């Protein structure tokens, strides 16, 4: 619904020439070297982890434990979230400090489905009501919990809930041309307000404790190693698909309008493009990707609570992207995996140092590495800037 | 040498106090002597004499007398108060000086006896005893405690006390206390007296009558009650407004430094909250340096907080922000990193736990307007402080050379530079000024809440909202926006709850920005073009 209105909103000139020599927008990314390289590396990594996990016996030096598989799966979800942020920040110039909200909404949609799957195996044994509702003495399910016992509906909501929020918020914001730091600040306020709201028990989302104690997903036991591996692979596939979709958008005519409006919004407007609709479309797509990332994240960590809405998390995502290199998409993946790996190591070895390291990272990356790690890599190989207007033409 | 001098001085002092004590005790001793006389009638008069003396120890004497614990040493004639009359030997203290005298055998002591008539007199006397002290505040307190506590035995002495009372407030209070009793006895005239009273006891008495059997009286009481309710509503409104303005003043203090760095320089300083925190910790540190002098510490921490936070701000500007000129989003991220580092620094160096800053005596307590309305003094001071800081900032921006240069650089950097203004220096000073004001906000906040590493975080989003709502680059806008957000929040709170009120305000601002992207008071003219 959202996509059709936004795409047709582009002037016909744009959609005509989108049928350029290299064919469909979704297949075009596969002709790019960077995409093929990225997908190759990702596939290799997924295959390697699977083999090392399944083929080698436990106790072997190279065996990948089930814990590590889940950890890696978490990184992949973060990477998808980072790709979503990079799409709006790197190509649209919108610094969203509230993407954690979309991530969390997707997570909550999945969490509600998983909650309903518990059935009467909860502590209180109520066949319909989740434990926390029984605890709060509620006697019936709130209206927005209906339908979440069906996987199809729940998965649809994973896309729709963040998408709808992004649509309404983006429509209001872009229509009145709220951009730059203003937009950043109100996205932060948005996620902050949602965090406060979800902390309330009366909202019906489990309040402070959130949703947890999940049992099974589509009939698969969430605690079994096989399901964990499956979720890890699903996250990898989702990341690959998300990457291709973003790459496709970026490489299309729409993507070029995005980059143009990032660099000179007023000029693009004067050329006759409806910049706000382009922005809205890309923003909604990005929010949905974030929602998918959240929905895959929740069954792997086994809990979703309002802290995912915290402004700190959202802004952390931005620094992953900044470290990896904004406006490259693969840079976002590199940044997300690197920072989170560092976080796992640091918080394990010396928890106090982590915030120093993270804070320092913010400063160092913005002051010394404006193009991130990806910038370092491309500078060495060839003077190619994939984000600039001229170079983006295939 | 010195020691002997001290010793002489000390001895002199002791001697002085001793004689003063002895002289003062002379009339008091005769009061007690009168109590020890044989006739009960004389004892009754002696009790009245003690009450009228207004002596601070009267209550202790009369209570001891009532309990049979006021006794006289047979040999020395010394009056003592028995602390515990169990066993053979009783611990006692001197009735006049209050000094403990160790234990005395019960045989050494002679009890001052009383009869039932005297007991009744003592009971009603004790109830009104505090109304005889010299301090009018203490008398008012005693009269307050009497509300709803009056009984038949106290009517006569209370009436007498009221007629003698010179302080109007105390007299009114006593009239009220008597009226509550009379109302309970079914006196319709009492309603008239209680009509203007806001005390909960008066309302309770009226409510009792409304529920009672006498229909005519009930109707009158109901009318009086509705009048009281009306007054209470107004008082509650004033209270909400006060709390709103108080919250608003905190928001203004927190946001006004941001308004300078964000509005005037276009720099997003996410570490602003941590600069507030630094100010608060300066206030705490100053109290650690000056133990036992919270008042002086608070006053000294105002310039200290400004300096500490201001220097930290200058350091941030020199080390980070100046390299990110014209890249506001990157500035936002970098300063966020700085904020994380500062937070962790405080956690590591001081403690992750909250610290409490002692409120000096002249700032604690509250200003009592009437029974239903009292304004806490510390909030009043913070409110005044916020307005003062605002006025000072206005003065700096409007009347000083620095203000002129800041405005020039804001409007047209290149032009200002070509007129000989050193723009980088102005940037540094502006940022330092904004940071210093954040420090002042911290000093003020330390008086209202606990000081902890997360103090700044809880204010940063609110501060941004205030600045954005008020209109960037406009100090008046910040003032109006901060105050109105504070009041709106407090008005919403009773029926929506604290959290929901906050959410509503946030959503309101998000929607408001859609309608007026440049805030309440947008910049006009050339400054708006940037």
List descriptors.
heterodimer, A: mainly alpha, two-stranded antiparallel ribbon, 67% helix, 2% strand, disordered N terminus, disordered C terminus, B: 530 residues, alpha+beta, 5-stranded antiparallel sheet, 20 helices, 7 strands
* Helix share, percent of chain B: 55-70%
Cα radius of gyration of chain B in angstroms: 33 Å
Largest sheet of chain B: 5 strands, antiparallel
The percent of residues in helical segments of chain A reads 55-70%
Shape of chain B: elongated
**End-to-end distance of chain A:** 29 Å
Biggest sheet strand line-up of chain A: 1-4
The greatest interface here is: A-B, 41 and 40 residues
Please report the total strand number of chain B as a whole number. 7
> With helices defined by DSSP (H or I, 4 residues minimum), what is the helix count of chain A?
16
Low-confidence stretches of chain B: none
> What integer is the average pLDDT of chain A?
82
Outline of chain A: globular
Strand content of chain A: under 5%
Strand tally of chain A: 4
Q: What count of structural domains of chain B? A: 3
Structural class of the secondary structure composition of chain A?
A: mainly alpha
User: Could you tell me how far the N terminus lies from the C terminus of chain B, measured between alpha carbons in angstroms?
Assistant: 76 Å
Describe the main β-sheet of chain A briefly: 2 strands, antiparallel
Uncertain stretches of 5 or more adjacent residues of chain A: 1-21, 382-394
